Amino acid sequence: MRWDFAILKKLAACLFLSSGLLGCHGDTAPSETTAYYEFFVEDDTLEMKDGVHLAVTYYRPVAKQPGETFPVIMEKVPYRKDDFFTLGDYEYGAYFAKRGYVVARVDVRGTGGSGGGIPVSEYSEAEISDAEELVAQLSRKNWSNGNVGMYGISWSAFNSLMTAHRKPPALKAIIAAHGSTDLFYNDVHYIDGALHIDVYAHQIDTDNSMPQSPGYRIDEEYFRNRFDREPWIFTWLRQQQDGDFWRKESLKFKTPLEVPVYLIGGLLDGYRDFVTEVSETAKAPVIAEIGPWNHAWPEYGVPGPNYEWRAKALRWWDHWLKGIDNGILDEPGRMAFMRTGHAPATDLATLPGYWRCDGQWPVDGSSTRRLYPQTKRQLGDAPSAQGGVDRLRYRAGAGMAAGGWWGEQTGDMAADDAHSLVYDSAPLAEALEIMGTPQVRLRVAADAPFYQWTVRLEDVAPDGQVSLISGAAINPSQRFSRLEPEALIPGEPTTLSTPIHFTTWRFNPGHRIRLAVSNAQFPMIWPSPTPGSTALFPGADTWLDLPVVPTENETSPSCVLPAPEPSDRAPFGKELKNNGPVFQSIRNERTGDSTFTTASDIAWTLRGDTYRSAERYQWDVNDDAPANARFQGERRNVFTISGNEIDLSTLARIESDATYFHITFTKTLRQNGGLVREKTWADHIPRRYQ
């Protein structure tokens, strides 16, 4: 979620009415040729076929002439539009409403202000079927012109893609930022097929258990539909292998998309591969953009440079929802930010580089350069002439320098590389730029039936500093089939292959290309259970392929992007504090103990009510006892509404041994200081190749 409002501007001339409608004028001056619409904000519900009412907030333009109708842009997520996301939602609703679009923000059934029970999991049949029904109903509103778009970041990118695959007639186009086509391999539960315990799992299970807004009633219906529902984290841990559960709504295993789609990704986001996957297979027009930032929209994502994506989004919607021939499909449809190399850092506001606006991917003149790990830890253009073997002791707590997933800014990778096999090229005589998905093949063996491998592509500067470019994990049990995993045969060599996540980078003259190979990526990947060692065999079956592209003149970029525009600020609330997330990693090389923590604390007000949310998460493992890894999460939401304090806290613990995951999850609800209900779920779930 996003709570940074530094770039927002204050709204002028807004009047909050007792009817619950908000009439507003933005204070951003219109251009000479554009007169913005006044708009109002209205809360309502839409009834689904089974009688469940879904809560919707409309940002609706005021018609300038009798009978004027507008297209509808829908976003549907469980992230509680009436409290957690109210302030953030406003800036996007206001932007498009002022420009002649109705924005419909809907809470998923069983969450936020919507009725019904919490679904069985994310992207359930009920959720996607509801989306189809919502598209149809919105197209029939008397203020609608009959054309509907869907859009969103993360969850709402996922369900926009899934709904588009079903092709509801009124859905004309979508915009998806940071989505996925493969829910097992490219989501936050099993990164690259390996178990990942993300803070999101605890956050969503906590927030889904909050009472229904705006009344926040605590009654038997609330307990039945929300508080007493088993947390989703149990469901996800019971689905440790790929199969029907994950593939039902995954676009990777469906026919190509036939609804026009504008795709946005980030080089520091864990979901970035979906941009190329959809753009390569879609049967409808596609715009695809990948910038330098993290899990965020392009106008504020960190690091920059940023641009105003909403200006292009408006032209996209104008073309598909208003029928305006504005030439957007005649422009280059592929854009990526070429990072031109930088020292490791965790706090860069802007990265060095330039935008490449190409008509296609791969770009003209692309080639593949194959490099081979060689003896003496070198990376060369030919395989070693002599056989050999490089052995690696498994240290379960290694990997914290890479962070919590394949994203975010990272510091020097030397600490991780100290517990990895590293292979370096000779210093480059001239610059080398890559853009795409590197490929890796490893010939390996292990002394136990299950380990995990990770590969990292890195840049080694002349002064020895190591920058992470991209990486990937490998679950070897899936080497022959994701659907039918097989254990390793101890001592028997096998071949592992994987793509490294999409990236761009310039290796500058004098720098070295590094391939780092490890058996641990803690806490990103849950540690495998057996201490021991693995072997890598340099030779013809072990290599790295780099997607090389011609270097462009960055002083004369192929495209110039508009600067971010100020956004309208909600006049009925404000952020009070935003601390975090703060990350900390501690590794004791003497004892082999590793601990990774993250914590945050936020607060805000809405219409005189106050809201606070705080959380802390910790992962622990010891190199000598990797089976006994641990996770603990704590989250507390305190909402004070009209003097009524609702206090929900949750505690989750996951501990593993060689054969089981032991998980407990406790919800505790207090009202005005008194205990209302406490409930604990517990299970022992067998480990299955994780």
Automatic annotation (TrEMBL):
Keywords carried by this UniProt record: Hydrolase, Signal
Gene3D superfamilies listed in its UniProt record: alpha/beta hydrolase, Galactose-binding domain-like
InterPro entries: AB_hydrolase_fold, CocE/Ser_esterase, Galactose-bd-like_sf, Xaa-Pro-like_dom, Xaa-Pro_dipept_C, Xaa-Pro_dipeptidyl-ppase/CocE
Entry keyword annotation includes Signal: yes
PROSITE patterns noted in UniProt: PROKAR_LIPOPROTEIN (PS51257)
Pfam (any one): PepX_C
Residues spanning the signal sequence: 1-23
GO molecular function: dipeptidyl-peptidase activity
Superkingdom of this protein's organism: Bacteria
NCBIfam families in alphabetical order: CocE_NonD
Protein name: Xaa-Pro dipeptidyl-peptidase C-terminal domain-containing protein
